Amino acid sequence: MSDSLRTLFNWFPVMRKLFQAKTEKEFDDFLDRHFEECVQRMEAEAHHLKVDNEEKLSAFLAAALSMPGLSVVREGYSNGRVDLTIKSESIQFPERRLAEAKIYRGSAKHAQAIEQLVTRYSTGRQSRGYVIEYVRDPGISNIVVKLRAKADLDLPVHQQGTTCDHRMRWAYISDHRHTSQELIRVVHVNVNIHR
């Protein structure tokens, strides 16, 4: 079996889940699970990645997320250069999600990433986006608890209510009111690259 045929065969179960998604929620559920698998791959290779800059880390994540039927573009344009544009290539059900990525440098920088995603890059058309934080510091679990507590206190970027849990470890969700008056759900994905 050729390498390209073997690769396609390995992708088939994941591709089937992608192409079976017929609603926005089903696509988001697929994408969340796919993100989780790709983040775990990054964390397994953290010893190679811990000194890399944000662009290289995002390139690694984009390569991991990309698959037949799912396009991931780095530095695509949406009112500015957004770190990742994730797009379903389904003709029947095209979906697009934006992701802003940063190396963790405290809650103020995290709030800036949310601001960029929600007020600059998002048009309000997509109901969900991602803020990805590459955490080089030890104690990612405590860092995430502190980020959530600060967000729940400050309600940055027109946050509506408090944050809520996400099924992925070290991830959580916040809802933000866009200038279009639409609500944008932001999934905060924290990647442990400390080794």
**Measured on Cα atoms, how large is the radius of gyration?**
16 Å
Q: Count of helical segments?
A: 6
What is the succession of H and E elements?
HHHHEEEHEHEEE
Low-confidence stretches: 7-12
Q: How many discrete domains?
A: 1
Helix share bin:
40-55%
Q: What form results from the Cα inertia axes?
A: globular
Biggest β-sheet description: 7 strands, mixed
Specify the structural class: alpha/beta
The termini sit apart by: 37 Å
Task: Tell me the number of strands.
Answer: 7
What spatial order of strands do you see in the largest sheet?
Answer: 1-2-3-4-7-6-5
- Residue share in β-strands: 25-35%
Average pLDDT taken over every residue: 88
Detailed description of the structure:
It is built from six helices and seven strands. The chain has helices spanning 3-20, 24-44, 46-49, 54-65, 107-121, 140-154; strands at residues 70-77, 81-88, 96-103, 128-135, 164-165, 171-177, 183-192. The model is unreliable at 7-12 (pLDDT under 50). Helix 1 packs across helix 2 and helix 2 crosses helix 4 (54-65). It is 44% helix and 26% strand. Strands 1-2-3-4-7-6-5 form a seven-stranded mixed sheet, sandwiched between helices. The protein has one domain. Strand 3 (96-103), helix 5 and strand 4 form a beta-alpha-beta unit. With 195 residues, it is α/β, with parallel strands linked by helices.
Brief sketch in words of this structure:
The protein has 195 residues and is α/β, with parallel strands linked by helices. 44% of the residues lie in helices and 26% in strands.
